[in-house]
């Protein structure tokens, strides 16, 4: 069994290969540039780990890992356009570097390249992987649409927000694990358990991300605390606070959301703490983390083989930066 770090190194080395032709350079160079920005590569590596639960990593799994990373980057490139973002992991975004029209096309060709990798799979598993990949891709688009719609809505329920996070973020991690398990010859029950592990882990991770934006250590978190509050971004914490506040606190929170007052972040955080939102978020994150670990525990393989996935989950959920 390989650790996350070992598989990360192996995948990064393999993924550095050129994925596109040289011409037309205006189309393919921006795609290679964006892929070269890097990232944690969690989804493809989770896919490899899931395969290795049930035996040696198959060549098909490396192809799926390539497809997953290309698809993920396709979504990020288009997200940057929709969000009008200027930076991605500290580098200039493609739509600012090369223009919006080129960015759209370069993202599109990443998606097409992902399907080309999948098309090289063993014909026996290809229809199964295609079906799951297509279902997941559609769900990710649905999640992104909900996210954009929520920005324009005054009120969003917690259930709606969790469903959006599940679609936009969690299902791709869940499907990555299931695809690796499918190639590894896992039973249907084991595939379902790994999918449940990934889905709940993804939600727990997002709860923690929302929490850290408000209550994290800025030196370890890598950015100034309170960015979501400044942008009035709908998060687990804000949605729950709007459900809980009443009277004077409700009026104060509404005023803070409508205006950029001095010390806005501090005042909103004070409301969160008064309502116990910080402790509530920790408990909610723990509920989803516990569900994730239970799904992993229920996978019918020797416990020692699950260590890498368990370590990865603990790393993602116990970070304080």
TrEMBL record:
The record's listing under InterPro entries reads: Isoprenoid_synthase_dom_sf, Polyprenyl_synt, Polyprenyl_synt_CS
One Pfam family of this protein, by short name? polyprenyl_synt
Q: State the Gene Ontology terms under molecular function.
A: metal ion binding; prenyltransferase activity
Instruction: For this entry, list what GO says about its biological process.
Output: isoprenoid biosynthetic process
State the similarity comment. Answer: Belongs to the FPP/GGPP synthase family.
Q: What is this protein called?
A: Polyprenyl synthetase family protein
Recite the UniProt keywords alphabetically: Magnesium, Metal-binding, Transferase
Source organism, top-level taxon: Bacteria
What does this protein need as cofactor?
Mg(2+)
Q: Which organism is the protein's source?
A: Arachidicoccus soli
């Amino acid at each position: 069994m390989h650790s996350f770090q070992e598989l990360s190194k192996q995948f990064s080395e393999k993924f550095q290969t050129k994925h596109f032709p040289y011409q037309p350079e205006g189309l393919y160079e921006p795609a290679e540039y964006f892929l070269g920005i890097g990232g944690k590569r969690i989804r493809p590596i989770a896919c490899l780990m899931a395969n290795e639960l049930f035996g040696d990593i198959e060549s098909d799994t490396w192809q799926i890992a390539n497809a997953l990373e290309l698809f993920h980057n396709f979504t990020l490139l288009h997200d940057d356009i929709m969000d009008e973002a200027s930076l991605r992991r500290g580098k200039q975004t493609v739509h600012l570097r090369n223009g919006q029209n080129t960015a759209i096309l370069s993202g599109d060709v990443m998606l097409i390249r992902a399907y080309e990798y999948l098309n090289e799979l063993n014909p026996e598993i290809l229809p199964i992987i295609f079906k799951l990949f297509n279902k997941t891709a559609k769900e990710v688009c649905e999640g992104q649409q909900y996210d954009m719609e929520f920005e324009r809505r005054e009120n969003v329920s917690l259930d709606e927000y969790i469903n959006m996070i599940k679609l936009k973020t969690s299902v791709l991690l869940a499907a990555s694990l299931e695809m690796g398990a499918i190639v590894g010859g896992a039973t249907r029950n084991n595939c379902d358990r790994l999918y449940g592990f990934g889905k709940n882990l993804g939600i727990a991770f997002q709860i923690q991300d929302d929490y850290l934006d408000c209550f994290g250590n800025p030196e370890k978190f890598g950015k100034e605390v309170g960015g979501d509050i400044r942008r009035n971004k709908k998060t687990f914490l804000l949605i729950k606070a709007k459900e809980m506040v009443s009277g004077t606190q409700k009026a104060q929170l509404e005023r803070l959301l409508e205006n950029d007052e001095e010390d806005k972040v501090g005042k909103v955080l004070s409301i969160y703490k008064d309502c116990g939102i910080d402790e509530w978020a920790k408990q909610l994150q723990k509920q989803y983390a516990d569900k994730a670990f239970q799904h992993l525990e229920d996978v019918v393989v020797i416990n020692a083989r699950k260590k890498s996935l368990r370590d990865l989950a603990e790393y993602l959920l116990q970070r304080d930066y």
